[in-house]
Amino acid sequence: MFxxxxxxxxxxxxxxxxxxxxxxxxxGLTIGALVFTLIAVIFGREKLRLSGWHAAVLALVGVLPTxxxxxxxxxxxxxxxxxxxxxxxxxxxxxxxxxLFVALFVxxxxxxxxxxxxxxxxxxxGLVMTLGYLGGKLVYG
Length: 141
Description:
The chain has 141 residues and is mainly alpha-helical. The protein has helices at 3-11, 19-22, 24-43, 46-78, 84-106, 110-140. It has one domain (20-140). The chain is built from 6 helices and no strands.
């Protein structure tokens, strides 16, 4: 099923994995959510807090296609061979999705919820950094 996607891309000259370029969406937006929210707190800029929330929404939306393309590349390029890093990436991506969702939900629940959302954004930042590290380890050893 996925082979037709890769055949099409190869036909137009694109022979690289398709997962890496899209990883910038959840990674960058997760980092953006944290940075916007911290700047909002430090400088009292309520509009930047909203920008952080919007970045987190887009990061959450970006996790699913990123995971799907990662799965496709894993099947296509590695034949679905199981490695510990694959298991970690699946688990961490699922955790990222859940924690971003929870952060978005609690951020609208008063001051305590907002503080909790910052903690969750920090954890999500750690997750995207770890996911990137594991992806690099899979590709470059």
